[in-house]
Amino acid sequence: MPIDNMFPENGPAGEAGLFELAPAKINLALHVTGQRADGYHLLESIVTFADRGDVLSFAAAEADDFIVSGRFAHFVPADAAEGDGNLVLQARDLLRRTLADRGIATTPVAIHLEKNLPVAAGIGGGSADAAATLRGLLRFWDANLLEPELIALCLFLGADVPMCLKGEALMARGIGEELATLPTLPSLPLVLGNPLIGVSTPDIFRRLLRKDNPSIGARDDDWVPFLKTLRNDLEPPARSLVREIDQISNMIGAEGAMLTRMSGSGATCFGIFPSLETAQKAVDSLNEQKPDWYFQAVQTIGTEP
Fold it and tell me: Is residue 228 assigned to a domain?
């Protein structure tokens, strides 16, 4: 898919000269296969990325500045405190400190985040924003880091940030740091749907009854039938917390999806459709039924179908 088609045609961030897409991350399958002694869960996940997401722009300024706009701007924290703080600002400050330790000067920067993705939604919004910030600022500051150094920064920011940094079809293992590309995974037309109810990932894992589930195993290049044999192990506990996940999955399925599943820890669900046209028609229908919910037709990154 041409990268030029992945950015919005209008909007402040899209008009900037230096900008980065923070695409929605979709876990097409997610198996929980174990737990480390430090409490981190071991996962196997087939991950892909959409052609829509948040957008960040970067511009020279007299002093650091951060502006946020978009449908979900009011959910973005204003500070860089660790934990529940703003991952864009955390990524900026962490990268600046790292470059300063190497004697690399970093000028002030104004960052504009166009927040188009719902938060706490299982589609990597904050992690994708952090990864896009690292990519954008390395270009803005004309700096480079070795890949192991960059991955270490990503993991400090969050387990999903390394895969979001790559932004391609992947098999993710471990806690998200073991990444292998999936060059045969096709580009898929999807409908994303979220009832705009935030889901706590720690709560989901606490409700997980089994943490030694079977691995994904050998894959088949006939991808949609293969994906139907897989699952998201976080979906049952998420459904027990947020009953709307059942509803939104059934609604997407009723529009003709070939497969519906929850992404990540939810509450976003996706449906795979025969074409982007049928996906968009489904979104139009779903928006009429639930105008206050989030629905988006996307095309994922991958080989041409």
Answer: yes
The answer to whether 292 is a known catalytic residue is no
d(CA 279, CA 188): 10
CATH classification at residue 111: 3.30.230.10
pLDDT digits (tens, 9 = 90+) for 12-61: 444 456 999 999 999 999 999 999 988 889 999 999 999 999 999 999 99
Q: Is the pTM higher than 0.85? A: yes
* Domain assignment of residue 58, given as a range: 3-181
Averaged pLDDT for residues 255-259:
98
Domain assignment of residue 304, yes or no: no
Q: Which residues of 221-241 are buried (b: 16+ CB within 10 A; e: fewer)?
A: eebeebbeebbbbbbbbbbeb
> Annotated binding site, which residues?
118-128
| 125 shares its domain with 233 | no
Name the amino acid, one letter, at 175.
I
pLDDT score at 65: 95
Q: Is 217 left (phi over 0), alpha (psi -120 to 50) or beta?
A: left
CA distance linking residue 230 with residue 141, whole number of Å: 42
Nearest Cα neighbor of 57 from 25, 26, 91, 16 is 16
Residue from 4, 25, 51, 64 carrying the catalytic annotation: 25
Statement to judge: residues 69 and 132 lie in one domain: yes
25 a catalytic residue: yes
Which of 163, 181, 199 is where one domain is finished?
A: 181
Tokens representing 49 are: 């990325």
From 51, 54, 129, 160, the catalytic residue: 160
Distance CA 305, CA 94 (A): 39
Known binding-site residues for ATP equal 118-128
Number of domains comprising the chain = 2
